[in-house]
Amino acid sequence: MGRFCLALPGYAEGMVTWLTRSLLFIVAGAVLAYAVTAQTQHIDLQTTGIILLLVGIFDLLLNAGLELYYRRAPRSTTTTSAYPRRDDTYPTRPIRRDPDWQ
Asked: How far apart are CA 10 and CA 89, in angstroms?
């Protein structure tokens, strides 16, 4: 996660990033599609706005769906595992090279 991302209560770890990106696309697309009346020779600003608006809506729905899909129930603290915990392992000793082996 980026170091500039805020930890806001009620939001998942990466949610602020994709939510901001989606809303930025939606707002920029709506402004270009409905508020800008300028005409250019090379690009149609209203069509560009509609495309940005649709991309923002698609991004918002896709990431919200993925967020709900990957959300898991909180894990309990007493989980059982097939592997022993780190403090339950057998004492280990470093492997030393055998001087007779070549």
From this structure: 38
